[in-house]
Amino acid sequence: MSTFYKWYNARLATRPILTQCVTTAFLFGAGDVVAQTLSPDPALKGKYDYIRTGRMCFHGGVVFAPVVIQWYKLVSTRIVIPGRPMLEALARMAVDQTVWAPVGIASFYVSMGVLQLHSWDQIKEDLRTKWWRTMVGNYAVWPAVQFVNFRIVPLEYRLMFVNIVSIAWNAFLSWFSATSIEQSMQTLEKAEHKLEELEAKVEKRI
């Protein structure tokens, strides 16, 4: 870990934007690897879609990272509350989650659709059926993460912090974007049912 930390700092000092874009692409791809490896869809067992992973890498390194780098700089320079670090972090998080989160999630579905050569009607349908459900999941995870990010993590490491946390989140996004809304809802319902069964067994033992 210390070797990677030294390497990352050295690259960050010489080529900060390129370094952050490359590492973001890699970690977005890692999220897709997790999604495909752990996919509950029996049709995907024994198969691996390398092009899908490539799409995630492209979105992370070419679309997501350059925008977020500038976004974090903007938030950090424009939202400043001297002597109130907790309030400052809370304000930055609130702006991030009300302004960037909706746009960022929409850009993900548009980017995936364009890379898959979908028609604009198909892309709009994905946005209509999946955007809000993804936003609900976003608000269950990211407000707390971003509060910590803006409160503790130095500006130059914020994207890396988000990328590390995002491995699981990107796995969810990759899986959710690659399945129809009916399939994804069925899978979520099955997972909820299994969780309820597990909770019932635990309660009986108690």
From TrEMBL:
Similarity field: Belongs to the peroxisomal membrane protein PXMP2/4 family.
Subcellular location: Membrane
A GO CC term attached to the entry: membrane
UniProt xrefs under Pfam families: Mpv17_PMP22
Key word Transmembrane helix present: yes
UniProt topology in membrane: Multi-pass membrane protein
Transmembrane segments: 99-119, 159-178
Protein name: Protein SYM1
Signal peptide start-end: none
Lineage: Eukaryota, Fungi, Dikarya, Ascomycota, Saccharomycotina
Coiled coil residues, start to end: 178-205
Keyword vocabulary terms for this entry: Coiled coil, Membrane, Transmembrane, Transmembrane helix
